[in-house]
Amino acid sequence: MIARLLVVGLVLGHGLIHAAYLAPRPPLTASGPAWPFELGHSWPLGSLGVSGDANRLVGVALVAVTIAGFALAAVAALGVAPADVWTAGIVVGAMASLALLVLFFHPWLVLGVAIDVVLLWAVLAVRWVPDNLTT
């Protein structure tokens, strides 16, 4: 039970950290780091001629899909949703997260990319599911 709750917490935590893209930027300080969660600027979208407002719209949609996918996976891991929802939720959440992190890239967010890749590998290549889903 503890392991299942840990998986749920990690999946939900990874999904919810993406909400930082929606939070207002904190005030800059002289010695403080730059805010990595910025939806106003996207090099890939900018090179396609996409404006700042459209950038934000794409980013908000990706944040919503990311959180929803990982939340569905967490609900499945708890045994509330069907087992098939686990894999689908992880794939949808991780793919949306990867798209968000690539489109609005900041070097600090490489860990998020690594988490998404590991999750995709675990559910697609290894076919891993939390123990309660295999019964």
Overall SS class:
mainly alpha
Which stretches are poorly predicted, pLDDT < 50 over at least 5 residues? none
How far is the first residue's CA from the last residue's CA? Answer: 14 Å
Q: Using DSSP, what is the number of strands?
A: 0
What's the overall average pLDDT, rounded? 90
Our count of domains comes out at: 1
Question: What about the largest sheet?
Answer: none
Please give the radius of gyration in angstroms: 16 Å
| Share of residues in strands | under 5%
Outline, from the CA principal axes? elongated
Bin the helical content: 55-70%
Number of discrete helical segments: 5
What is the helix/strand order? HHHHH
Write a concise keyword list for the protein shown above:
135 residues, 0% strand, elongated
Topology, element by element:
Layout: H1 2-17, H2 43-47, H3 52-77, H4 84-103, H5 110-125
